[in-house]
Amino acid sequence: MPIWETTMLEVSNLGVRYGRHVALDGVSARVSKGEICVILGANGAGKSSFLGAVAGLVGTEPGTSIVMNGKDVTKLDAHLMVEEGVALVPEGRGIFGELTVAENLRLGSHARRAKADAGKMLDFVYGLFPRLAERPRQLAQTMSGGEQQMVAIGRALMSKPDILMLDEPSLGLSPLLSKELFKSLAIIAGEGFGILLVEQNARLSFKTADRGYLIETGRIVGEDTAPNLLNDAKVMSAYLGAVAH
Amino acid sequence: MLILLTGLLLGGTYTLIALGLTLQYGVARIMNLANGETLVAACFVTFWLYTGFGIDPLLGLLVIGPGAFVVNWLIYTWLMQPLVKRASNRGMLEVDSILATFGLLFLFQGLMLQAFGGSYFNYEFLAQPFSIMGNSFGLNRVVAFVAAAVIATGLYVFLYHTDRGTAVRAVAVDPRAARLVAIDVRKTAAFAFALGGAITACAGTLLSTFYTFNTSMGVIFTMKALIIVIMGGVGDVRGAVLAALVLGVTETLVASLLDPGLTLAANYALFIVVLLFRPQGIFGKRPA
């Protein structure tokens, strides 16, 4: 039985180019409420461009359509996409290193949509990552890689997103920390947040996810439920391990 | 002791000048070479309000601060934003904004020269002795220092203890990440540029109460601000305060013990020392 009854994010015919280089071509994907969706692909396949385009950081080609909660948001700038319920944890995390943990989280609720429930969300984030609750006054840049990842995810959650997007969250984390991370993502999805992540780590992400897309040189080449993808020997041999190439 | 206190009093006004520049450069990423012209314009407007209408310079702050805010906001949105839009990277914006504000410097200087001529101006305001620890200082200097301290403290509270101020700092740290937390970077940059201009103008008003000014001195103050900002570290409020006080004391030391004509030379000597030994600023970390 599909758990993605209501589609929140619907991307159709997405194209992105950098000068003459075509990064994405005719990509379509959707994410529903409370669903964990993975886009799996190798380095340079266009994963980051996909998230960047949805988040409003990267310009899209004519013909692209991005619809969020029934509203056309194709041309919205990044800060307005947050108000539509899209939060991105970018590659390299993008936290404010010179600001404290508490300031990073407070900035997360800068969006108007987040203001009313900021206290509730902060409790949720601190409950999810008790480590952050212990050191609200520490400068974010002095924390370990895993803790910085918590700050980044916590900050994105503070905007009370409908969809949390993560760009290779397990990159640079130990296998143990990666496992912890995906556990946290499962909890977040359980609270009703949609999750869209791009990954190279096939096994770990498909174990947690509901559904997956395979992306290769800017095109979607496969789509299925996560268990099916996990049991597909061809897929797993192509994407098993950390780096495909 | 006298030299130290005189220097610290001067450093108070310098702090404001530097805070204005660091807001414009650190947040809006505009290296505003015409910053000193804002200061000089404020000196003249204060003079005009005081001698023409009898408006107390301290009350004048309430007009000049907001006025400079509006003017600087217009400068940013009309003249700087096109540069920001077409710049493909930060280095390009830096070069463009330096050239553009270099031009503005001469435009404003020319306009003021036209209006006020090239002679030196001053006026008498609170020109009475005030005693601190047995030493006598001009009351105007003391009042200017106190006012500067109040404004600087206000700015600090705004930047570090309000949501809006935290957003301003976030843009200074990482504009791209700031967009991801729903901050309108364009608006915030315009606001920071305008606020920086307002603070520099307040510094000009306070400076004029005890300092002889003329239309062409702006560039000297831009340099002083630049020295302080680099010494304190770009965007670092604590660093700017400390560096401004150091500069004030150094200048006074050189002027009293050596020769008043050497203060500018002392400025640059200090600048060179900082660039050689601590280019990342007093509190700054070495870039990784």
TrEMBL record, chain B:
Keyword hit for Cell membrane: yes
Any one GO BP annotation for this protein: amino acid transport
ATP-binding found in the keyword field: no
Compartments where located: Cell membrane
Domain of life: Bacteria
Key words of the record: Amino-acid transport, Cell membrane, Membrane, Transmembrane, Transmembrane helix, Transport
PANTHER family assigned to the protein according to its UniProt record, in alphabetical order: AMINO ACID ABC TRANSPORTER PERMEASE PROTEIN, BRANCHED-CHAIN AMINO ACID TRANSPORT SYSTEM PERMEASE PROTEIN LIVH
Family from the record: Belongs to the binding-protein-dependent transport system permease family. LivHM subfamily.
The name this protein goes by in its record: Branched-chain amino acid ABC transporter permease
